[in-house]
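Give me the fold.
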Amino acid sequence: MDAITDKAKAKIGVHSGPFVVQKQGMAGFICVYCSSSDHLDRKYYDEAARLARQLVAHGWGLVYGGGNRGAMGVVGRTVKEAGGRVVGIIPEFMKTRELALDAADELITVATMHERKHLMAQRADAFVALPGGIGTLEEFVEVMTLRYLNQVDKPMILVNQDGYYDDLLRFFDRMTRERFKSPGLHDLFTVVATADDVWRHLADPKPFTADELWREPRTAP
């Protein structure tokens, strides 16, 4: 598919305002953030495959970065093999390096990483982060920020496999303790230990109430 145009954006509902849940004939689409590394311990690929199989079993579709490497590739291929729908969104500079999962049901090529993240957030009804590197962290934290600012109202789940994110969670604790963020930061997402724990939290997601400043649209003075 060619780089996405304004016309194509309109067709799939891309807009510049707050992101809201859009159901599409199934439970919805989960955006999965995870690693593209081929050099991880086997347990991380196994957990990615487990999440992918369960995602299909629970009636969800997949939105992800469109990659064919590492845990990303495992998630995409496993969802496809299990009969689920796969939407991949990938920048052209990655696609030209043969990093795209061509078997995806819908493979959207974009010009920039920013476009990629915007469309992933737009198409998703929920977000799940598996263990990953700086890209995974950046993507998940950006959606956290949007939710904090009341621009996203969709559940977020962090899979803290074998304590992988323990140090990050301690950093968030310090962030709130030293008042860089309000205590509501901890309500932005749910932490689970394994893929098995994801689904009950999606069925009954943790509520989040934005700080008063962000609850209602404000007009310029």
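Confidence is low (pLDDT under 50) at residues 1-25.
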